[in-house]
Structures are given as structure tokens and as C-alpha cells.
Design a protein that fits this description.
Helix 5 packs parallel to helix 10. Helix content is 41%, strand content 16%. It is of the alpha/beta class. Helix 6 links the parallel strand 2 and strand 3. The chain has ten helices and nine strands. The chain folds into two domains: 161 residues, Rossmann fold (3-Layer(aba) Sandwich), CATH 3.40.50; 83 residues, SIR2/SIRT2 'Small Domain' (2-Layer Sandwich). It is elongated and about 60 Å long. The structure holds zinc ion. Zinc ion binds next to loops.
Length: 256
């Protein structure tokens, strides 16, 4: 077995505070496109900024039109072996929390409780009113758009928007605070499928490392932390993670 897999498994099984950080790379195996890679949506469309969404009905209509196009892929996307492996880890009591840049909700779909998933960029399965903050399922808004209500609004008159962070929109302060706090106080910081370039994600491995945490990275492409991390595995998460969790489980049962 890969030496890196065993090293990570050993750290996990030691039973400290284990934090996992996930990016687009964990969801590509579920058919969710990585927006930053070639041919991603960013190539085809100029993004709609938050200010435009708030100030222009045309921008809102265009936003919802794009959203409706993505909807079938979004609802049909299923968690892959990497998501399931993290749920197994949680059930073994070996996973404190997942910090994610993803908005697909697949960690929860796989079975992780909401409160264990810190979604830095929001969740596209939910809709939030930009005025009163009320949350509702994406399904409801989607049905309205399909029925001809092209830029749906809340009962309060506010604009409905998927509960994700748009370009030009503030990051959710409370979630960032919690993510930083966890990074500062963990024993293992395991990065899966993130290039660690987008802020504030880019700083978190640094916090973890500076506080003496073990830093491991599973990613197909380069990251700025490749030379400072303790273990680096260049492989697909869905192939490596189940093996790590399996090995952790064996090590944990041996130590009991
Ligand atoms: Zn409202």
C-alpha cells in the first residue's frame, strides 16, 4: 500500500482533532464540473456580480436562466466514494468537521450532519431572500422560474437568490471565523481536491501548519503547499480516500 496512505491513516487513527478541507476536486467524480478548469462555466460566461444581481432585473433573469440550466445536473449529482468515506470516518468518531469550498451539498447528501459541514461559499440547493434572509429549497424557486416567473421574489418583496457567494459578495463572516478557529486548533488538516489558491481557503493550511498540525494533501494538480506539507498524494480522492479510511479503521480497532 502507498506509504502516504498509511501515514495519513495513522494520524487519523490517533484520534485527535481531524479536519478535512475539500474543494472542487472531490466532486468532479460526481460529475460536478470544476469551474476553474478548461471548458468550465467561467470560460463560457462572464460571471454576474452581486451588485448587478441586486440592481438589475435583467441580470437576475439571466442569473436564474443559467441556474435553471444547471439544475438537472445539480439535483442528479450523487456523492462518490470519497464523500462516503468521510461519512464513515465521522461515524467512527474520527472526523471533527469538513470545511468546504463546494456549493453542491454532496457532503450532506452522503450523510454528514449540516453542523459538521462549513460551507465557505454557501449551498446551491438552498435559496435565500436577499432582504429578510429567509431560506427555502431550490426546488420551489426552480418551479417558479420554469413556470415563467423569471426572477422570483420573496413575499417580503426581496429578491430570491441561491444561497451561494457570488462574485463581489462578502464571505460569510461567521463561517470563515469558525473555519479559521478549527484550522488553528486541529491535529490533522487533510486537504482533498483543492488547489488552495482562492482566499480565504489559501491561508488555512498555513494556520494549521503553524500550530503544529499534520498537513496532508490529496490533489491531482499542484498547490502552493506541496513543498511544506507532510504528505502529498497525487491521485483521485475517490480512489485514495476509501483506502485511507479503511486503514484508519483497522489501526483504530487494533489500538482499542
Ligand atoms: Zn424576504
Amino acid at each position: 500500500m502507498n506509504e502516504g496512505i498509511l501515514q495519513i491513516a495513522k494520524r487519523i487513527a490517533a484520534g485527535g482533532k481531524n479536519i478535512v478541507f475539500t474543494g472542487a476536486g472531490i466532486s468532479t467524480e460526481s460529475g460536478i464540473p470544476d469551474y476553474r478548469s478548461d471548458g468550465g462555466i467561467w470560460e463560457k460566461h462572464r460571471p454576474i456580480y452581486y451588485d448587478e444581481f441586486m440592481s438589475s432585473k435583467e441580470a437576475r433573469i439571466e442569473y436564474w436562466r443559467r441556474k435553471a440550466n444547471l439544475y438537472p445536473d445539480l439535483v442528479n449529482a450523487q456523492p462518490n466514494p470519497a464523500h462516503h468515506a468521510l461519512v464513515d470516518l465521522y461515524k467512527m468518531g474520527l472526523l471533527e468537521a469538513v470545511i468546504t469550498q463546494n456549493i453542491d451539498g454532496l457532503h450532506q447528501k452522503a450523510g454528514l450532519p449540516d453542523e459538521r459541514v462549513i460551507e465557505l461559499h454557501g449551498n446551491s440547493q438552498r435559496v435565500r431572500c436577499t432582504r429578510c434572509g429567509k431560506l427555502s429549497p431550490l426546488d420551489d424557486a426552480y418551479r417558479r422560474v420554469k413556470a415563467g416567473d423569471l426572477a422570483p421574489e420573496c413575499e417580503c418583496g426581496g429578491y430570491l437568490k441561491p444561497d451561494t457567494i457570488s462574485f463581489g459578495q462578502m464571505m460569510p463572516a461567521e463561517k470563515v471565523r469558525r473555519a479559521v478557529e478549527l484550522s488553528n486548533a486541529c491535529d490533522l488538516f487533510l486537504v482533498i481536491g483543492s488547489t488552495l489558491i482562492v482566499h480565504p481557503a489559501a491561508l488555512m493550511p498555513d494556520y494549521a501548519k503553524r500550530h503544529g498540525s499534520f498537513l496532508a494533501i490529496i490533489n491531482l494538480s499542484e498547490t502552493p503547499y506541496d513543498n511544506v506539507c507532510d504528505v502529498l498524494i497525487r491521485a483521485k480522492a475517490g480512489e485514495v480516500l476509501p483506502a485511507i479510511v479503511e486503514a484508519s479503521s483497522v489501526m483504530k480497532s487494533r489500538s482499542l
